Amino acid sequence: MKIFQQPLQLKERRRGFHLITSEIMQAIPQISEIKTGMCQVFIQHTSASLTINENADPTVRKDFEMYFSKAVPENDPDYRHDDEGPDDMPAHLKASLMGSSVQIPVRNGKLALGIWQGIYLCEHRNYGGARNLLITVFGE
Description:
Layout: E1 2-10, E2 16-19, H1 21-27, E3 36-43, E4 48-54, H2 58-71, H3 88-98, E5 101-107, E6 110-111, E7 117-123, E8 131-139
Antiparallel strand pairs: 1-8, 2-7, 3-5, 3-8, 4-7, 5-6
């Protein structure tokens, strides 16, 4: 079994849902050595998350942001944790709902994503800063 691990720092992005599949692939070229295996991508933050969804139509990403902004609104007077502003606690809640990692099968040296699937960085803060990922690939 081979195991490769690579950190990746993503540049700061505005709040929203952003495709990062190509950045992940560029960061771990050793994936080409894996015929059958898995790739885990983990985000090292509590106010941003990762998911896999539609990679072609950008309106899907806009609708994701619209939905989560409605489902987890800012300025709720019941939030106690607001040290970094009104988007602070909602960002933590959204990150917990979405998750901190995705796992994708690797087949013949490539991510075995479906034809319309891509990996999203879900940025839940207005000014979240650069985001750190840890990519781990393992297999035969």
